[in-house]
From TrEMBL:
GO cellular component, one term: extracellular region
Enzyme Commission number, as recorded: 3.2.1.8
Originating species: Aspergillus welwitschiae
Entry annotation: catalytic residues: 100 (nucleophile), 190 (proton donor)
GH11 domain residues: 13-203
Pathway: Glycan degradation; xylan degradation
A Pfam family annotated for this UniProt entry: Glyco_hydro_11
Protein name as annotated: Endo-1,4-beta-xylanase
Length: 204
């Protein structure tokens, strides 16, 4: 398993200075000072546990899951509480083509996805609305390029469960989207403002 930390201030549209910090994949524990002078610390136990507490007014993303491979099922279980603006999702990037994708299981005061609903995914005991957000000539983890964000947003929120990522990739393709080969697939918490705590065990 790998752990992931991203610190930025992402919004729509995405700013150049924000996206330069989008890819920090942690195979060991790490701490440091960010560009704003704030200290951060991430612990990776090289196991299946994912524990995170936060209190923030700026965007961050942390997660745990699997690198590479085909779209797979991910299961997570444990304790979760949050308030404010946050998103709990299965998350990743692909190559050939480059895409960023979210399968949102629950969220706070914000509205993930946005835009026109392209269709639905009926999977894992729930219905998800599908969105696509195009980004053009912006920097991301592979340099300045064009890429799309694919979104599946679950209508009935849940904080634990199993997601069959392959079902979403297949449905996205049926709706005319083009996800590539996964770089990683992770259970993630993205926070924008507010506070919370989670303690999950992640498995395939």
């Amino acid at each position: 398993m790998v752990s992931f930390l991203r610190q930025a201030r992402l919004a729509v549209p995405i700013l150049v200075s924000d996206l330069a910090k989008r890819s920090t994949i942690l195979h060991t524990s790490q701490d440091g000072v960010d560009s704003a002078g704030f200290y951060y610390s991430v612990y990776n136990d090289n196991g299946a546990d994912f524990e995170l507490g936060w209190s923030t007014e700026t965007e961050f993303l942390g997660g745990k899951g699997f690198k590479g491979g085909n779209p797979r099922s991910l299961t997570w279980d444990g304790y979760f509480t949050a308030e404010g603006d946050w998103t709990l999702a299965i998350y990743g990037w692909t190559t050939n083509p480059v895409t960023e994708w979210y399968i949102v299981e629950s969220h706070g005061s914000g509205t993930p996805g946005n835009g026109n609903i392209l269709g639905q995914v009926d999977s894992d005991g729930g219905v998800y609305d599908v969105y696509n957000l195009p980004y053009r000539n912006v920097p991301e983890i592979y340099g300045v390029t064009n890429f799309d964000q694919h979104w599946s947003v679950r209508r009935s929120h849940r904080s634990t469960g199993t997601v069959d990522v392959s079902a979403h990739f297949q449905r996205w393709k049926e709706l005319g989207l083009n996800p590539g080969s996964p770089v990683f697939q992770m259970v993630t918490l993205e926070g924008f403002s507010g506070q919370g705590y989670l303690d999950f065990t992640v498995s395939a």
